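Lecture notes, structural biology module. Today: joint structure prediction for complexes of two components.
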Amino acid sequence: MELYATELFGVKTYDSQGNYVGRVREFFIEPAEAPNRISHFLLSRGHFQPLVAKHNQIASVSDRKIQLNVGEKSLEIYEPNESWLAVRKDLLDQQIIDTRGRKVVRVNDLDLAEQRSNGNVELRLTQVDVGLPGAVRRLLQGVVPSGVVRRLQNQLPPSTIRWEFVNLIEPDPLRRVKLRITHEKLEDLHPADLADIMEDLSATERQSIIASLDEETAAAVLGELDARLTTQIVEDLDPEKAADILEEMAPDAAADVLADLPKETSEELLEEMPGREANEVRELLHFDPATAGGMMNTDFVFVSESATRDEVIEWLSKQDQNFDQLDTVVLLDDKAEYSGAVPVVRMLLAAPDERLGALKMDPHVSLPPEAHEKEVFQLFDKYNLRMLTVVDKENRPIGAITVDDVVSHLLK
Amino acid sequence: MLTRETLNGRLAIWAGRFDHVRTATRAFRRRIAVFFAIVGPGLIVSNVDNDAGGIYTYAQSGAQFGNTVLWSLLPMTIALYVSLEMCSRLGAYTGKGLSDLIREEFGFRVTFFLMAAVLLVNLGNVMAEFTGVFWATDVFGISKYISVPLSALLVWFLVVHGSAKWVERIFLTICLVYFSYVISAVLAKPDWLIALLHLLPPHLVRYIPTIKPFVQVPQFNADYAIILAGLVGTTIAPWQHFYLQAAVVEKRVGPRQYSHTRNDVLVGSISCMVIVFFIIVCTAATLYVHGIHYVDNAGTAALALQPLAGRWAGGLFAIGLLNASIFAASILPLSTAYVICEALGFESGIDRKLGEAKIFYGLYTALIVLGAGLVLVLGSHAKTILLWSQVLNGFLLPVVLIFLLILVNRRDLMGNKVNSRGFNWVAWISTVAMILLTLVVVYSSFHEMHQ
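The predicted structure, tokenised, for the full assembly:
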């Protein structure tokens, strides 16, 4: 039969001789042993010291009575344990992340299932109730007979999350390790979804999630969060970790984050970053965010205009980089000056030995880094660009603005 | 000829010079931007305070007791600041709303009953706001059967389809109408020295011989207690605390930005009380000295504006009252629905679609429809509605403050930012004083009913 945590709180417990031992006050799960098994029952009676019954000491469980298969004497006295997850204290009424529904929800109740094994009954946590049935149970349990509550809750639309899809939020890193809470499931989410979830949490909770993600995911999430949150998070991170994350971010995004930090903090972080990345970001930091230089990214693909299509594709395939976002390649002439740009689609459709110079896109546009963002918007709009090259005074390309940079600046 | 290259070159030179200025001012501009992004909630909660119920209570107290209620403004400013500051600190340091924290720390059942009370009390407040609409439009001779439903529709659409930011700005601008009380007070030529002297407790300063002849000592009877409780009830309302803390969390104020928010709350509390001071002085100098002791409708309250506006006083007052009522009526149902849904775990927020957040939109709509509808049905009892909405506020407020005090003193939530001992004293004394005042009001209003 299905049981609910709310129904079991306060249930009387009897030992093997039929003596009353106490009422159930709390259940614990020991994630290190089994992720969903109720491992300990906290029993208390009047002013006696509270006792703990282990899962293998339980003979039967119902919403009226819990029967132990041992005598009271063999129960241990309760000692608080950090590595136990307390159902009432740590789960009920707290926020959790529903990794499948990709949102933050509040726990109303917990559904438990009985599992019989040699001579005892184990309770397994099956799902978390976040809907009306759980709410009604919490409100009425103990006031209205449980039969009535059960009949009433069946009329209500259920809303539950399977325990495997639940991700707990624990701000204390030591306890997180003890409780075996990982954020692997979160790393599988799209960074934009994870960013949405983070916006629903409190500052310490956000901090704890970012700190436990791998640097690559953390960088992707920070890129999706709103600017003020990103600044707060980076400021509170340990500088070494912050530098590692910034290193993984696109240089323009990293520069945006650093520009919003106090001068000393951003210098400190730049010191921590490896030389090449730090220099790229430093260069970007010189530009006002509202100019082409402030919007551009220094990571872009440039090739000689005399290279053939096949040479370029072969070169690209050998690079240890992710080109998912690449849609235009910048061309250089023999003086290393900017000579044009080629959309990837044109390369795809061209003959293998076609020279890239012949595939150049019309019109031949570029901007200096000082150009105001309005000019950038106008060019993108006028020529339906997806990428725009930024050149220095000697007409050498120094960066590229892509359409997603334009969109995020427009939305600011 | 101006080629592309030379043009670019020139732009580069100019932009370069400009850039220099911009980098120099960057830090400063950033600070200003942060300031404006964060400032606001404190000012708004305090200004929405001067709503229909508020204006009525202030005008009534000035008319009935003249300057002798003024001394209560100083302790009220402190109580308002102390309670709002605790909320904003709790929000900034935990990153959670007040209702969320109550749910997490006190469990479902407590939260459910508290939220039920919030719903009921705020329904009373919404009714008071629509009563304000009714009074204000009555001055122009518009039937309440037209004005109240129209304003209810307006409020509903503003929030569901409007952009909150500009709506807020319009309301805050029209709030400047309250300055007409300041001007009117000046034009009525009250004795300012005497008014200022009454800011000190008259029961104490009457022992100072040089001051004594100028001070009027109020008689402490049931009527006086009701007015005092009314002043406290309308100035420090339970919903403000939920609203302020939610706004602090929403604006992502963290420990580092907190000093801005504290200043915002401080400025809000003081400016609210300055306006109240002028309204009371103004009504004392106009209504009270002419023997008009009871404010029965907007017409009487508007008489106080006559020194400024002459025969336009009624219109000026009505516009101010209408604005205040609609402003509060658009904030209250929304914040109530939001707070309740957050606490009980329903989807909430106006960025959600209607189908996704049924309970949220349901509550929001029900509050407006019921609030406006009940005012139409009970229109002739307007004064009773205003009074009872304040009394209900008075009931709920100590409860909210006690939760607040427990939470803000929890070291596991707040670290070393828990209340200092002095702060706790002030907060507990205000809480107890409010409970006592509420009891007096309840006692006397039942007494009145049975007479």
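Point to remember: The first helix of chain B runs from residue 4 to 38.
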